[in-house]
Design goal:
The chain contains one helix and 24 strands. The chain has 292 residues and is an all-beta fold. It has a single domain, classed as Neuraminidase (6 Propeller), CATH 2.120.10.30. Strand 14 and strand 15 (158-163) form a beta hairpin.
């Protein structure tokens, strides 16, 4: 799909990631991990806002009582946008100062699933954690390098997960009550010429939309047979994540990055780091709220 962009938001993120739609507010959120910036964009008024944190800011999620949950370095915190108050919830890997959180999502039961990685991108140094209302992080997968995209099917029985360097989307059986996962198979293998799979979301038809880092777009994959169905082409190489939002959940917000680019690269692709809004023919699912 060529020229799909409805609007470009000039956010100029170094590493834009973690887009989130909160319907109650009519706002998209996303983070710039390296700069520690939290972006908020009101879809109707088109008003952009930024809050800065002196940390790696890996993820923003929807919490209870109107609060946001942020991943700061290796900590999860509550954040109140109005008062700017921060309250620590939990922390992982306290003995690994070079580690930080990466991508995170909330399942249908309100549990947070969030990965860690080494800021040196050490091979197999990261893990995927499940965090429920007891706030005791439990590792579900280990030996990960860059844990990234996550999505669940609407029946709650299947979990998809990406460890970026593998170029594979893994499929797990998911037990919604216990939160246990069991590896089933590789659902999709990404060809080398399409870059690396990064962030991901699922549409109402059960198809996966995957941001391709180094692949200049968001690609729609059928996880049932591994077939490539569509591609939203973008004028930047490093596409990092995507989510559905808007009143009918038919607007996709796509984040991008400037990292790993030379000055000449940035001149060639000046919109790198910006955020793109695309009107979609197929809509997505409601954002889950954490149980705390």
């Amino acid at each position: 799909m060529e020229n799909p962009v409805l609007k470009t938001i000039s956010s100029q993120c170094f590493l834009g990631e973690g887009p989130l739609w909160i319907a109650d507010l009519g706002c998209f959120f996303w983070v710039d991990i390296e700069k520690g910036n939290l972006h908020r964009y009101h879809l109707t008024s088109e008003k952009p806002e930024i809050r800065h944190f002196p940390h790696y800011l890996a993820v923003v999620l929807k919490g209870q009582n109107g609060k946001l949950i942020l991943g700061l370095d290796r900590k999860l915190v509550w954040y109140d946008w109005e008062t700017e108050e921060i309250e620590k919830l939990c922390e992982v890997e306290t003995n690994q100062p070079l580690h930080r959180f990466n991508d995170g999502k909330v399942d249908f039961k309100g549990r947070i699933w969030i990965g860690t990685l080494s800021t040196k991108f050490t091979d197999r140094a990261g893990s995927l954690y499940r965090i429920d209302s007891k706030l005791k992080p439990e590792a579900q997968l280990n030996n990960l390098t860059i844990p990234n995209g996550m999505a669940w099917t609407t029946d709650g029985q299947t979990f998809y997960f990406i460890d970026t360097p593998t170029r594979k989307i893994q499929e797990f059986a998911f037990d919604a009550e216990s939160g246990r996962i069991k590896f089933r198979r590789i659902a999709v293998e990404i060809p080398e010429d399409l870059g690396f799979p990064d962030g991901m979301c699922i549409d109402r038809e059960g198809m996966l939309w995957v941001a391709h880092y180094g692949g200049s777009g968001v690609y729609r994959w059928n996880p049932k047979n591994g077939e490539l169905l569509d591609n939203l082409e973008l004028p930047v190489p490093h596409v990092t994540s995507c989510c559905f939002g808007g009143e009918n959940l038919d607007v996709m917000l796509i984040t991008t990055a400037q990292e790993n680019m030379t000055e000449s690269d940035l001149k060639k692709y000046p919109q790198s780091g910006d955020v793109f809004l695309v009107k979609m023919e197929v809509g997505g699912l409601e954002t889950n709220r954490a149980c705390f």
